[in-house]
Specification:
It is a multi-pass membrane protein. The protein is mainly α and 486 residues long. The radius of gyration is 23 Å and the shape is globular. It has a single domain, classed as Growth Hormone, Chain: A (Up-down Bundle), CATH 1.20.1250. It has helices at residues 8-15, 23-42, 44-56, 60-76, 78-88, 90-108, 118-136, 139-150, 153-164, 166-185, 188-197, 199-208, 220-228, 258-264, 282-289, 292-321, 327-333, 335-357, 362-375, 389-406, 409-416, 422-433, 436-451, 455-475. The chain is built from 24 helices and no strands. It is 71% helix and 0% strand.
Length: 486
């Protein structure tokens, strides 16, 4: 019998026929795994920092600057990273990001293998952390871009909560492992381990990932569900010639490419998507930056990230120096607030989306868990009033549960960003938010150097809960930024 051939379009239709597990959930799972590895590498110095400082001869202030190095380049690279994502899409940019940050992480383990002056070792670690920050800069904006494409508005809060909660699971999973590896084999092997962990996700991402309209596993029913609910399924497909997949784009009724159709027509639940401007010019940037909700996100995200950077830099050092825990005990103990943050993050996204489905406004649905969560951060300052390690861990667990509950900044960003500048908005928000990664480690380093105590540092960190609440007040009504014709 002659061999039967099937056209590429039919292949897409056949392979995308009603899978048991929706493809968007597999995409979210892959984002989650990648983000866990990302945050494990970002927070690796919190476990290895004391041993590295002793080995290489760093002072407390120098260690604070090493902690902050990541933040400097991460902030500066957000805008170019966002522009690259808007220009080339998430698939290729994210692949390059994963490969490069993996190499930079592994290279830290090579510093000081031979006798090296302290300042040379300091410069080498500082430079590698700068590179790590630059290479990771497109990651979270890419996550937000992918979630915007793959998830309807009423599922987006939970989806963004899943990938942002990866930071807590990273600590819960990797902190005990990194503590044990450092204790048994030395701090260098932690970076070798983390470098190896990034290889497989990079290979899976580049081979499997596609946009919703081009993915062979997506059924027409799932595509309709996403698009009718406000997912911008064609966001990357307007980048002509840049998604070089062998699969053709799906077409809407009448032969109109779904990629273009989904961007240019109004989408339910989002307030519509305005016609694409020809370029991200000065007028467009001014229009975006004049939006009140975006400035509220800037303030709240900065405050939330200050808590994050305390958690992934100085918290383990606090447990060792102020509470007298061993490195192994610290790795296990740090998992307690991390798991609390994970629970809070998943609950916050679920509650927010459930409020939307029950008819609450987008503003009420996003702000309610955010305000409750950041109010739970304020008691963090009570750690200065007790010597009980158990009570301190309880307070930390409550505070980081609240931080997770209130960390809906990425969900709000996907709600307000205009489609043509989605990654630009995400990049600027991430840049402002991660300025906390520069300020927080350095301020705490100097505070410890001057006072010799963590009390002032804990007051400094706890005050950011109040700052986050101010950000939610500034935000006003949450709505998508419209780019009206000039």
């Amino acid at each position: 019998m002659p061999e039967t051939t099937t056209s590429p379009a039919n292949q897409v239709s056949q392979r995308g026929r009603n899978p048991r597990v929706p493809t968007r959930l597999l995409v979210l799972g892959l984002l989650f795994v990648i983000t866990v590895i990302l945050y494990a590498g970002r927070g690796s110095l919190s476990i290895t920092g004391d041993d590295m400082a002793d080995d290489l001869g760093f002072s407390t202030v120098q260690l604070g600057y090493v902690f902050s190095a990541f933040g400097w380049s991460y902030v500066l690279a957000q805008l170019p990273g966002g522009i690259l994502l808007d220009r080339f899409g998430a698939r290729g940019v994210y692949t390059a990001s994963i490969v490069l940050w993996t190499l930079a992480t592994a290279a830290i383990g090579l510093v000081g293998l031979m006798t090296t002056p302290v300042l040379v070792a300091l410069a080498a670690v500082f430079l590698l952390r700068l590179l790590l920050g630059a290479f990771e800069s497109p990651a979270l904006p890419a996550n937000a871009r992918v979630v915007t494409m793959w998830f309807p508005t009423a599922e987006r809060g939970w989806a963004t909560a899943v990938f942002t909660s990866a930071q807590y699971l990273a600590t819960a999973m990797f902190a005990p492992v990194m503590g044990w590896v450092t204790h048994e084999f030395g701090w260098r092997w932690v970076f070798v381990l983390l470098g190896a962990c990034g290889v497989v996700p990079a290979m899976i991402w580049i081979r499997w990932m596609r946009s919703p309209t081009r993915h062979p596993r997506v059924s027409h029913a799932e595509l309709d569900h996403m698009e009718s609910g406000g997912a911008l399924v064609g966001l990357d497909d307007v980048l002509t010639g840049l998604d070089d997949t062998a699969e053709p784009a799906r077409t809407a009724e009448g032969g109109v490419p779904a990629a273009v159709d989904s961007v240019d027509r109004p989408s339910p639940g989002t307030g519509g998507a305005e016609p694409r401007p020809a370029r991200l010019d000065r007028w467009t940037v001014r229009r975006i930056l004049s939006a009140r909700p975006l400035w509220g996100v800037y303030v709240s995200q900065y405050a939330i990230n200050a808590l994050t950077y305390f958690f992934i830099t100085w918290l383990p050092v606090y447990l060792v120096r102020a509470r007298g825990l061993s490195l192994l005990e610290t790795g296990l103990t740090a998992a307690i607030p991390a798991l609390s943050g994970l629970l809070g993050g998943l609950l916050g996204g679920w509650v927010s989306d459930r409020l939307i489905r029950r008819g609450f406004s987008l503003t009420a649905a996003r702000k309610t868990p955010s305000v409750i969560g950041m109010s739970l951060v304020l008691p963090l300052v009570l750690c200065t009033l007790t010597d009980s390690t158990g009570l301190i861990l309880t307070i930390l667990a409550i505070a980081f549960f609240g931080k997770g509950l209130g960390a809906l900044g990425w969900a709000i960003t996907t709600d307000i960003a205009p489609p043509r500048a989605a990654s630009f908005v995400g990049g600027t928000m991430n840049a402002v938010g991660n300025a906390a990664g520069i300020v927080t480690p350095v301020v705490i380093g100097y505070t410890l150097s001057v006072t010799g105590s963590f009390d002032a540092a804990l007051w400094f960190v706890g005050a950011h809960g109040l700052l986050a609440l101010c950000g939610f007040a500034i935000m006003g009504e949450i709505h998508r930024i419209r780019l009206e014709p000039r």
